[in-house]
């Protein structure tokens, strides 16, 4: 009897929820098939266990390396395909020169695993592709492959994680687990990288700033962008410009207008529909354009502003006025198309003052070029003068957004110089992880048929930690986490208040006794296979984000600081240490010098 | 009457061709709707004009920045939404410190444009998302938006291109063209970046080497990987490991086995099914395992090999033997799990010699760590000795594949050291474009309602070249391209044998007379809108690849060399030069020093 498995149809279902393709018939068929399958499979497939497929319908069992299928064939030929294997997914080095990583991508992995089933067409393609001819028995085998006998233990998505500790432990028939290797690595690698990048940007920007992800146009392809929007939100961003991501994941959306909008106007004379209702609907201003012009004159002649404002750009004024007429409650203007201080800011203020007359509060300005520290400061001064001069309480706090090729370094530089920016729009450097475009997660065999396996390498950092393991995070008196420790599967769990020896896995002199005040088991069961364990529910995106933010607050500040952070300690139990080194000596050939 | 437009249904159709979701009903519905739509729309929608949607079903009109929709609303409110706008898509700087770029992504753009239509659900989402309430008239407007009145002129995909020259010129109603801005940039930016990266790797590796793209697991998400596979193939790679990409695009697939496969075996005793037919089917070897063992002994005792081979790893030997039993015609072994020269290569040779007895020719070995120059040389020596010693003609040329974190620099270093590698498997650095993770294509308004527009900037390299333009590539006597030139839309075309003045767009002293031996117009009509022009057909992927390879051959070698390449000249006509500078002075405010 199959458990937890909903076949092919859920892929349609994911399309339905993901994209609402607009064909009711299509949707009905998806649901009908679901019901039919549920019936056919009996009560074991119940509604509570059904899971949508991955967000991107391109994530199918074929999204894998060909060698996973050639190996599956060779395992099958050798009668080894059902050997019980345990693989760990982990990385060896934190990205961006830092000492922490945010784990992300788990939900998509579980959705893939829950729906892992080859279609007949996919099977035909594989058999045509494998070198030589495929035996019929293998075709039958492929037809029956699913993840009903696979178990997945993972750290919660959004958790701060460290090198060598398994993020996922995947157990099951070796051929099936190998097929999962590539897509699972693909789904975790970029997700964790970009979530970490976002978290780093949040740490530099500070909690009080609004962070917007603006990377869609420069991302590595369509779902390089959509994934980035999702995982930047997890890492602590507040909103995205990417409408598709907003719709798929419910991430708040932000956006106003571009330079092209500004330069598409010639002059306010173009504006034909000039009337605007008051905010409370009580009356109508028949000529908002003239109201704006009159405020612009007042600004130009204002002594408080030092008569410094000359003629502003009329095409820009027309664009701002038009935008305000369309969105009087959400007026935010891009002020750097011509000249920020001589044109953009005065034009914005004129429109904002006119809107204020009609009871609308403007949102602010966006700067997309130039010296952001200086310009934001100058704009703030103008806002403060106007607040006083024209009696607009709060106008001095008008929001200033900055968005010109920002990254960790430029945010840090802005902090050092002092600035008046309230909100950052960050694109290219964030979503492409320009500073380090890949995270090197690996997926290593640690046990087969209950036999521990070790992968040796001349580079110690590449030696794998064998055995099916348990992983714990130990917390100290101040609430910070002190150390992660891996133990053998059957060792007793570390206990609160009890001293435990934590050893560096490869460096014999590095060790410490720890008396934990709190012990957290890191790996939880997200896909129980046939183990009968309770399946951990996948949390909502917002909850993952909250978890991530809380996790970062629990880190000792020196582990997450930007420059020269302290490495976090990752250790093994004394027993596991001994076993690693026993196995190592056992497997490594003794060199011979001649 | 609508032209060239196939509404929503083609999105399903793309799903069908792209993924074969396995539900016949679904497919039929897609086709039925297509037919129904075709009927409803009359003969203007004919089969020849139907086009599939983008490869990734996530590419919809919502894959855009929110500000494109807020602007659309503001344009609509101002009655400007149908103003006729011309936008250029171009980049400002070649990537990777080079002086050329390979243009890619066009097909996906045209597929998006051909199917650009908002669904009712998408429209509802937009209206809920826009700040404030959406007027009913705008909803109606959104419902009717398509690209039937948009014209797209583009350089052929796979062409070598240079900064400032428009890769695409998109003309149409300003609100619609702005909606296209973000997705089109997204589809071109990474595609061109990774195609260029692949071409650069090909140039360093040389024509004779086999290049395999192995990046799926480290790519930026699922279609970061699938796009990379597609565009690396265009840029000159031979094959990919990515099964999904192989299936979607017909790219050749490659793959054998991993370290986990090797370490999942314990010893040859495990192998139960030991028989192998001769290649010609004439007889059967009942114990292939023993045959391998006997060859291993001969190798170990061979004087020609200097008695240097001791005991090899038996788990590795078991894995190789099993793999050969599964794929006797395609035996390729990963030889670095334990020790390349002491275990992997001798084990490979034993299996290859046994296969040879049965009439099978082995493919080769793969090295995934260590000193690739040295190890490939040592392995080659062994192969050559075995060719002589055991009389296997051609065995000395057994293929050697290398695949350990390779990039342009390491390929270059291997060339300098000398090596015996025949084939490279390249992953992370290739597909994530690690050396430069983003290309900065922009999309700038150059004309609206026949009025040229210029975008100014204090940074001259950021000033846009105004006007609807034509672009030509001029070729010299030796067949190499000499210069690209942009002219106004209505200027006469440069003529073969006639002298023309080519000016640097911004540097008045840089100019040259050119007498072209061949003139190529770069921008072709890929989407005619209502212009009545003939639509350029989208070529097959293989043809794009061939075009790219031919293009690189036509480049003067100094433009494409790795170190200190010569910049290729991009120029404007004398008339366009004068106009740019007239407009510039006209728009830029005169500074005032106090």
Summarize the structure.
By secondary structure, chain A is of the alpha/beta class. Chain A has 19 helices and 22 strands. In chain A, β12, α15 and β13 form a beta-alpha-beta unit.
Could you explain how this protein is built, in words?
- Two copies of one chain form a homodimer.
- Chain A is α/β, with parallel strands linked by helices.
- The first copy, chain A, folds into two domains: 66-199 and 437-587, nicotinate phosphoribosyltransferase (Alpha-Beta Barrel), CATH 3.20.140; 274-400 and 411-416, TIM Barrel, CATH 3.20.20.
- In chain A, the strands form five sheets. Chain A has a six-stranded antiparallel beta sheet, covered by helices on one side.
- In chain A, helix 8 links the parallel strand 6 and strand 7.
- In chain A, helix 4 (106-114) packs antiparallel against helix 7 and helix 8 (222-234) packs across helix 9 (243-249).
- The longest helix of chain A has 32 residues, at 174-205.
- Chain A is elongated, with a radius of gyration of 29 Å.
- At the A-B interface, helix 1, helix 2, helix 3, helix 5 and helix 7 of A face helix 1, helix 2, helix 3, helix 5 and helix 7 of B.
What class do helices, strands and sheet pairing of chain A give?
Answer: alpha/beta
The number of distinct β-strands of chain A equals 22
Computed Rg of chain A: 29 Å
Describe the strand arrangement of the main beta sheet of chain A, using strand numbers.
15-14-1-5-3-21
Largest interface (C-beta under 8 Å): A-B, 137 and 138 residues
Mean pLDDT of chain A: 90
How much strand of chain A? 15-25%
Uncertain spans of chain A, ≥5 residues at pLDDT below 50? Answer: 1-49
CATH architecture of the largest domain in chain A: Alpha-Beta Barrel
Number of helical stretches of at least 4 residues of chain A: 19
Please estimate the helix content of chain A.
25-40%
Multimeric status of the protein: homodimer
Task: Label the overall shape of chain A.
Answer: elongated
The first-level CATH class of the largest domain in chain A is given as: Alpha Beta
Number of domains of chain A: 2
Fill in the CATH topology of the largest domain in chain A. nicotinate phosphoribosyltransferase
Through-space gap between termini of chain A? 61 Å
